[in-house]
Write a structure and sequence with these properties.
Length: 89
């Protein structure tokens, strides 16, 4: 069985997402893309900013609508209160 290569889904902007939010974003990305795993991509120049998500083990290429949904979710995490829940349920 061959595994698909990692794919980086880069946002149009970076978002200041805390650690609990990053976990929520990774989980949301994994479920949304049906990937085996997902990892938030932090900006090396500003580690407080998440600039996208790396996903591994995709069954199919993500669509533009899926990418828009993922970035909308990241943007929504910024507006929640710190420590105020994971942002989706």
């Amino acid at each position: 069985m061959t595994s698909s290569p990692a794919l980086e889904l880069r946002f149009k902007a970076g978002y200041p997402i805390d650690e609990p939010g990053e976990v929520a974003l990774e989980d949301y990305a994994r479920v949304l893309t049906k990937a085996a795993s997902a990892e938030g991509l932090r900006d090396p120049a500003d580690p407080l900013m998440i600039t996208g998500v790396r996903v591994l083990g995709l069954g199919a290429a993500p669509t533009e609508a899926l990418f828009t949904d993922l970035e909308d979710f990241a943007r929504g995490l910024v507006s929640r209160a710190p420590g105020g829940g994971l942002g989706w349920g």
